[in-house]
Specification:
About 50% of the residues lie in helices and about 5% in strands. By secondary structure, it is of the alpha+beta class. α11 packs antiparallel against α22.
Length: about 550
């Protein structure tokens, strides 16, 4: 209890000390709360991948189709801050353990039981730069050195004091939020640009889902990221790194709304094969398949809807009703044509996430296909809709029930768009098992949409491959994910040009990401109405260490 109280007092002292910070901290134009995966990657970058992070994270918010956009509108609740404080206490304690001290730096205290301000300063400056994603100011370093000294004096342990300083860094707004700063643009009078550190963070979180590494921070500090050649060198390095797979996994986790697995339940009588192991495996299958196809093989993005090659494990083999003889946990697998599988829309992930607990749902599947992959959200149904006809699962097939439901003119307009693509997937039940009958009647998987007629999942995949909205939506999402804002009408010409270039490149995702990140629009500063000098944000945080508003 005494250590916790000391840590909270140290953080309060630090926050108040920032009120006197002066200099060129710049103007904060955006503050985006770290996602759970970004938080975990940031801690691993600073202290090692073996540091355990056990705790609950604040709920995230989806805006304009992406959690990455919603993160710019989030604060931290008082209970959330308490959880972050507990995480910081655990992480800092692990970081100063004997086996991990080498990661803190090359200095050693003169005596383990006495304060050593010079050594503490070196540790704080090094680790602080990693956590804050920029060099610390002198005021920020000095405040933590005082915390470390005070802690060492009171506990009789140099590393106990350092742990308190690290905890102060880990609960600071500058760590928990991605603070993007603007500075005057020396080449364009009266205009602003993102500073080098903000550019570096925007790049690293897009490509790696992690803070900038030492090389990218160096490029930011030297001004290289403000030059075309310097930026292109860093982009080539980021895109060629194996860590691009981490960035792609994070992006597609967000875009495909895979967080819905966290609360997914199925009726055990309807689907006895479904379990938490199947849910976890399905999520991993979709990410493995997507990353392998688009990042490792650099294939055409549109093949995501037509490819019949994937990865399976023993849990999924039971659902897909295929043999599993491999001794490895995961193995490549190619579905035969008569399996009717066609890309990720026929994997357990999409088919189970967007279905009912005890039945499939062509409407939900159609709505989510348009929302996720075509950037066409569907409005909510009228409040007085009668769902009784479509919910009568014992009557005929879902197609006949939906046709009866669409007699309601208030529903027909949306259902005419969403239902055809969902009905094409009806040979797969609510967890993705193939079936051809429902209530003893043959399932009709033909569909007619916008003058195109197709049948089944394979016909749907071929249809989607020809739709310009599919790659255009991906470009829009990559841009919005990277900048943390939904595009507006001023971005439409830019996005159209990027989509055209994407097509000319054979719809290869890594090249598209580089091209988007190399464009001036990716770093364009849009000053919010209440943009504030950077020191004001820390001042506001100092007023209440129980929450960040």
């Amino acid at each position: 209890m005494a250590t916790t109280a000391l840590g909270l007092a140290a953080h309060t002292a630090w926050a108040k000390s920032t009120q006197t910070a002066q200099g060129d901290a710049g103007m904060i134009v955006a503050a985006r709360r770290l996602t759970e995966s970004q938080y975990r990657h940031a801690v691993a970058e600073a202290f090692g991948a073996d540091v355990r992070i056990q705790g609950r994270f604040e709920p995230e918010r989806r805006e304009a189709g992406l959690l990455a956009v919603g993160s710019g509108q989030l604060s931290i609740t008082p209970s959330g801050f308490e959880q972050y404080f507990r995480l910081a206490d655990s992480i800092a304690g692990q970081a100063v353990a004997d086996e991990r001290r080498a990661r803190l730096g090359d200095c050693r205290p003169a005596a383990d039981k006495a304060p050593d301000e010079a050594c503490a300063r070196r540790i704080i400056a090094r680790v602080g730069e990693q956590l804050f994603r920029r060099p610390l100011t002198e005021a920020e370093i000095a405040a933590r050195v005082r915390t470390a000294t005070l802690g060492a004096e009171r506990t009789g342990d140099f590393y106990g004091g350092v742990a308190l300083a690290l905890k102060s860094l880990l609960v600071a707004p500058e760590f928990l939020f991605r603070m993007e700063r603007a500075e005057a643009d020396p080449e364009h009078s009266g205009q602003y640009r993102l500073d080098g550190s903000s550019k570096a963070s925007r790049l690293s979180f897009l490509f790696w889902d992690a803070p900038p590494d030492a090389e990218l921070r160096r490029a930011a500090a030297s001004g290289e990221l403000h030059t075309a050649d310097g930026l292109n060198r860093q982009l080539a390095r980021l895109a060629s790194s194996p860590r691009l797979q981490d960035g792609a996994r994070a992006f597609f986790t967000d875009m495909m709304q895979l967080e819905h697995f966290d609360g997914l339940t199925k009726d055990s009588k309807a689907y006895p094969k479904f379990s938490q192991a199947v849910a976890d495996s399905a999520r991993e299958q979709t990410l493995r398949t997507t990353v392998d196809l688009l990042i490792k093989q650099k294939r055409d993005y549109r093949e995501l809807f037509t490819a019949n090659s994937t990865y399976i494990n023993r849990h999924l083999a039971a659902v897909y009703q295929v043999p599993f003889t491999s001794t490895a946990e995961w193995t490549p697998f190619t579905f035969p044509k008569d399996a009717e599988r066609s890309g990720i829309l026929t994997e357990v992930t999409f088919l189970s996430l967007f279905a009912h607990p005890a039945a499939s749902s062509p409407t939900r599947r159609g709505v989510k296909l348009h929302e996720i992959f075509m950037c066409e959200p569907t409005p909510d149904p009228p409040a007085d809709v009668d769902f009784s006809k479509v919910q009568a699962l014992e009557n005929g097939t879902v197609r006949t029930r939906l046709l009866a439901h669409m007699e309601n003119e208030g529903c027909a307009a949306c259902h005419r768009v969403s239902d055809p693509v969902g009905l094409a997937l009806e040979h797969f039940d609510g967890i993705g098992q193939r079936r051809t009958l429902e209530n003893g009647q043959p399932i009709d998987v033909t569909a007619d949409l916008n003058g195109f007629r197709f049948a089944g999942a394979q016909g749907l995949g071929a249809y989607l491959k020809q739709q310009r909205k599919i790659p255009a939506c991906l470009v829009r999402n990559v841009y919005a994910y990277g900048v943390g804002k939904a595009p507006d009408e001023r971005d439409e010409d830019y996005l159209a040009d990027q989509t055209e270039a994407f097509a000319k490149d054979g719809y290869r995702v890594p090249e598209m990401m580089v091209r988007v990140a190399a464009s001036p629009e990716f770093f364009k500063v849009k000053l919010p109405a209440r943009a504030r000098p950077a020191t004001k944000v820390a001042t506001a945080a100092a007023g209440d260490t129980g929450g960040i508003q």
